[in-house]
Amino acid sequence: MYDVEKIRKDFPMIVNHPELIYFDNGATTYKPQCVIDALTGFYTDYTSNVERGEYSTAIRADQAYAGTRDVIARMINCKPKEIAFLANITAVLNQIAFGLSRELKKGDTILISYAEHASNVLPWFRLKKELGVNIRYIPLDEEGNVIIDELDRMFDDSVRIISLAYVTNVLGSVQPIRKITEIAHKNDALVVVDAAQAIGHLKIDVKDLDVDFLGFSSHKMCGPDGVGVLYGKYELLQKMEPIFLGGGMNARFDIDGNVLLKDAPERFEAGTPHIEGVIGLAAASEYLMNIGLENIHAYENELRSYLIQKMLPLENIEIYNPANPSGPVSFNVKDVFAQDAASYLSTKNICVRSGHHCAKILHNLIGVDQSIRASLYLYNTEVEIDRFVDEVSRITLEETISIFL
Amino acid sequence: MASIKDYFNDQNLMRELLLDHYKYPHNHGLLENDRYTSKRMASASCIDDITVQLDVEDDVIKDIRFDGVACTISTASTSIMSDLLIGKKVKEAEEIIHNYLNMIDNKEYDPEILEEANVFQNVYKQANRIKCATIGWDAVEEMLKETGKEDE
């Protein structure tokens, strides 16, 4: 039985701010007490650097840090050595693009979509500029879902990589990754998945999906900021060149410039890592797995359909993704600039995001530049949705202006 | 005696004023004319993207034009600014801009010279929207500084 009231008590932000309705979970999520305790535990009980110390607290830090690989491996069904910790999903996608660029040449093609976040567009654009690779866009339906029948036709001998969000960050389209991987592999292309908006919201099984690379950020799944997870099939990670070189990632080097890198995953973790963040991520993962990712997914989808059902009758708004079962709800209030509507909602203690949401080529699909995004998570409730919808129904141009007077 | 601030505290009147400048902005639409210097304000945030044109002749602001994608506050504030600054001497315009930016920062300012721009006296309460109220003003201020430098 999913007990949302019990879950809400785990989150100090909710306990400390009962007045706030937090519907900006696509941007970041609140942290449960157990994650905060894991962070302070490291700083109050066993502070030390990792991978080098011979003393007890250092060994404990090592175990906690490396232990997170085991936890993540259990969560997404891979081997611990297939997990590397970087700064965030942006760093992960840059590492993948950089690493794969070494095997690309002019005329090769990378497939992405209009619905991608900047971090899954700009690193590939750089390869277009520097190497002369082609970027092509996979056909999407009006709510951003890959049209799988048309995907097949996108492939020719030049296609080497397909890089997509699992759940898109504005429209919440859940892409059929398994089918995409099947088609891509049949055509000898690699599949890169940006799981930033999927992680912690649904059960991810990288073996079942058969993806080649996948990445996500800790802070979008109740974990600390500043940690990104890179998953890669081990043989691919072992072949990949790291962006950053330095301590912790080399095995040995000499005065002639001969360098032997460590094996994956350590080779991707140059310098002192975000130790407490990685430790906190393990706590967040355990927390979510205890509730059950399937349960979270089912609850969230229920909440979302409740939200849609309440919003559809409103005559002052336009919703861009009512049919998608998961992910954020993106909409505009008619004749009101998205940012003005979000500012109005903030005066009612409602937290939503407005703008392009870093998806600046998406307007090619939905026809508008900006929108308001309400993104739900495991601790949101129908009561909050009722209050939210009530406030949204009151938004007019006059009301949004009044907040500035 | 009612002060200028009291007048600008009449919410209904002020709402009408802002709405009017947002729906029917003055001096809106760019011109293709070499006399104008032009500044695009697109990099400060990823939302507002406006271009402001300025024509200064004989130390007087002859014209200001603007266009772009912008929220109510940036549109209305740029519109009101254009009305206020056209016809002013550069020194006067700089003084008005200085006082306006002080008002937006919740510092000391002279309401008498700001005329309609007093409508933005409470914008500082919406901390995340201060940039919206200054984007057009910043553009003119920067252009005036640049022209000033060229003259020296």
List the helices and strands and how they pair.
The complex is a heterodimer of chains A (405) and B (152).
Chain A: H1 4-9, H2 12-16, E1 21-22, H3 33-45, H4 56-76, E2 83-86, H5 89-101, E3 109-112, H6 122-131, E4 134-137, H7 148-154, E5 159-165, H8 177-186, E6 190-194, H9 206-209, E7 213-217, E8 228-232, H10 234-239, E9 250-253, E10 259-261, H11 275-291, H12 293-311, E11 317-319, E12 329-333, H13 338-347, E13 350-351, E14 353-355, H14 363-366, E15 371-374, H15 382-393, H16 397-402
Chain B: H1 4-7, H2 11-23, E1 37-41, E2 49-57, E3 60-69, H3 72-85, H4 90-104, H5 130-151
Antiparallel strand pairs in B: 1-2, 2-3
Helix pairs in contact in B: 2-3, 3-5, 4-5
Describe this structure in words.
- The complex is a heterodimer of chains A (405) and B (152).
- Chain A is 40% helix and 15% strand.
- Chain A is α/β, with parallel strands linked by helices.
- In chain A, strand 5, helix 8 and strand 6 form a beta-alpha-beta unit.
- Chain A starts with a helix and ends with a helix.
- With 152 residues, chain B is of the alpha+beta class.
- Helices cover 45% and strands 16% of the residues of chain B.
- In chain B, a hairpin with a 7-residue loop joins strand 1 and strand 2.
- Chain B starts with a helix and ends with a helix.
- The model of chain B has no long low-confidence stretch (mean pLDDT 90).
- Chains A and B meet through helix 13 and helix 16 of A and helix 2 of B.
